[in-house]
Amino acid sequence: MASARVFSGNRRARRSLLWIGCAALAGLVSAPAFGQGAKTAPDPLHSWAAGSDAASLQSWVNARLAAAKADVGTVIGATGAHTVGNTLQPYDDAVDELGLADDQAGLMTMAADTAAVRNEARALEATISSAETDLSLNRKVYQALTAVPLPARDAATKYYLQRTLLEYRLAGVDKDDATRKKIRQLQDRITQLRLAFQKNIADDVRKVTATKAELAGLPPDYIARHKPNADGTYTLTTDAPDSTPVLTFAANAGLRKRMYLAYNGRAYPQNMTVLKNLLIARQQLATTLGYKTYADLATADQMIGSAANVKTLLHRVNDAAQPVARREYAELLAFARQRQPGLTGLSDVDREYWPEQYERTKYNFNAQSVRPYFPYAEVQAGILETAGRLFRVRFQQVTDAKTWDPAVAVFDVFDNAGPNRGKHLGRIYLDMHPREGKYKWFATAELVPGIGGRQIPEGMLICNFPGGTPGDPGLMQYSDVVTFFHEFGHLMHMVLGGQGRWSGQGAFHVENDFVEAPSQMLEEMFHNWSVVSSFAKNYKTGETIPAKLFARMVAADAYGRGIWVERQVLYSSFSLQIHNRPPSQVNFDALLKQDMAKFSPFTYANGYDMYTTFGQLADYSSNYYTYVLDKVIALDFFDQFDRADLLNGPTALRYRRTVLEPGASEPATELVRKFLGHPRNIEALKKWMDVEFQTPAAPAKGE
Fold first, then answer.
1. Per-residue confidence at 644, pLDDT binned at 50, 70, 90?
2. Shortest CA distance to 347 belongs to which of 603, 565, 117?
3. How does DSSP assign 148-161, residue by residue?
4. What phi and psi values does residue 173 have, to the nearest 5 degrees?
């Protein structure tokens, strides 16, 4: 997986995928105060501003929960006829308070600098989840909302009310008291298991020892960052900045295998038990709510509609991808046999290494050759510039903002288009480099939900890119840059889609199986010369990346797309299969081997226990197919842009207005249809996968 962006069926799991946020900013930045007549919120609006210890975080979260409880009381206590003003508004205020608490407790779980605060945050997440479950099962609130007449002239509010009532019914609010009590217990159990699953992954940083000779093939700056032990060996960890280069570049097969097994063996065996118990609780919840399997429940309110439709999607996509993937693999195996005669197949251990070697030969492209052109600071500036032009916004760094860690960079976002030019749209936080105790992968996260005229949306990136220490330029692989583009796409969706009236209708409240489409669309910008050449500068000389090197990079990047799509189908199928049958019938190893044989040309490696470290199983549950569906949509989106003028043409602003700004104010299927002018289909995906076979051969060496 290129990056971990977790999402799932309920609101709190939605936070753990992306994390968004918005706020009045409590005096930290010039921002609109709460609107006239609005309730007074507890101060400060940021948990980290309340204090850096566990007790302060607990006090801050409790204040949000108390405010939410008061809002629920207002809903229930409304006198006279129920209206949008006296019922839906305080309900949304409660949703907002719970969102603030949930988002920022999640932040502290992932990014706080002390174990005490991280542990307290995890405990608070369970408390917040319990409060959210209480609200979802509160029959008095549901009855009050059902009594609100649907607005005839406010389509967004009408849809919000209808969607809210649907989610209440899916939560089981209309069940009897005993059943609702059981649902609540199951939801609490699911939350505890989900948090335990993620904690086990975060806490299990494994180490691999290598000799100096075994480091052959790794970049010189990588080796320089690792100091030898007393016996001359080197200690590497399973954190991404260490593990990814080993799996991609290390010439020593033994080192690659040790790292592969260590990385994919994190949280094993403890998470095997946790995951099995999680499946049991989810299945019990599904049957209690009247669904045959948890996969049926988890897809009921999504664009896809049903677990059966997921299977249909995966079969259609795989039918398109498999011929491409098999052709790619045949070429790769033939190449590897030239290097190692007698090979009968390629192991999954070497899934990153052999393509890198192949691309060096076929495309005259060495992934290390572009790293000097992608120092972290230049990439960050380039992505801000690209996003600014594409989305018609302006970023302004805030140097005096208080953050949860000194390494976090903060930017305010201002509108740069139309009559609202200069309007303060939101704030973003970039926490981009590894540190002890921090979340180990890549994610976008909500911090404060946006409410037009009341709260300015805030969001953050939690990443683990190279750099962040004095003297280290943080040279990035091109895949790192693509990941950065992806995560930034989430941020822009959050900011631009967080300008509406309702906290519960921000961008990350769209159907969960649409949320990856805007981020995957932005990835495609990386393949455009005018975009990348604007920031890809050699960190020593300032030279722009040569056009021919860029062309070889793009040609090499097109190789393996069929294999990549099949890999996503593999993960999607595995996620679905363990959720679409009784847990007693789930054999993780057998299902994984079955899916590997069906959807991957690489041979299964004994000891490949990826399901214990596959964080998406906790948060996406059965719905990892989101990445596949949204890749289909994202490529169709990108096909609408003029390749000769990606950033400045009229399509960019139309995309912002039609897809991003509406947030969750209408069904995602409608957003797709309005922008494309037709229902989604896989034709753009087919064309994208076939690019490598339609591209002329790379220039010979020296050209």
1. confident
2. 603
3. SPPPSS-HHHHHHH
4. -65, -25
For 301, what's the count of Cα atoms within 13 Å in the CB-facing half-sphere?
A: 19
Q: Write down the architecture of domain 43-174 according to CATH.
A: Up-down Bundle (1.20)
Distance CA 494, CA 85 (A): 25
Closest CA to 428 of 508, 516, 491: 491
Average pLDDT over residues 489-514: 96
For residues 521 and 637, give the distance between their C-alpha atoms in angstroms, rounded to a whole number: 7
Collapse the DSSP code of 257 into the 3-class scheme (helix H, G, I; strand E, B; otherwise coil) and give the result: helix
Helix (H) or strand (E) holding 253: helix 253-264
Cβ atoms 508, 515 nearer than 8 A:
yes
The single residue listed with the structure tokens 């007693």 is 584
Separation between Cα atoms, residue 391 and residue 327, nearest integer Å: 38
pLDDT mean over 676-702: 77
Is 52 within 8 Å of 118 (Cβ atoms)? no
Helix (H, G, I), strand (E, B) or coil at 87: helix
Q: Can you say whether residue 392 is alpha, beta or left, with left for phi > 0 and alpha for psi between -120 and 50 degrees?
A: left
Q: Is the pLDDT of residue 514 over 60?
A: yes
Give the integer Cα–Cα distance in Å for 594 and 273.
Answer: 21
User: Of 203 and 294, which is predicted with more confidence?
Assistant: 294
Kindly report the three-state secondary structure assignment for every residue of 286-335: HHHCCCCCHHHHHHCCCCCCCHHHHHHHHHHHHHHHHHHHHHHHHHHHHH
Q: What angle do CA 189, 109, 612 make, to 5 degrees?
A: 60
Contact 559, 358 (CB under 8 A): yes
Name the residue among 170, 166, 196 with its Cα closest to residue 290. 170
**Tokens describing residue 328:** 């790619």
Enumerate the domain spans of the chain. 43-174, 205-264
DSSP state of 658: I
Helix axes of 626-638 and 561-577: crossing angle, nearest 10 degrees:
140
Q: Which residues, 6 or more positions from 79, have their beta carbon under 8 angstroms from its beta carbon?
A: none
pLDDT over 80 at 685, yes or no: yes
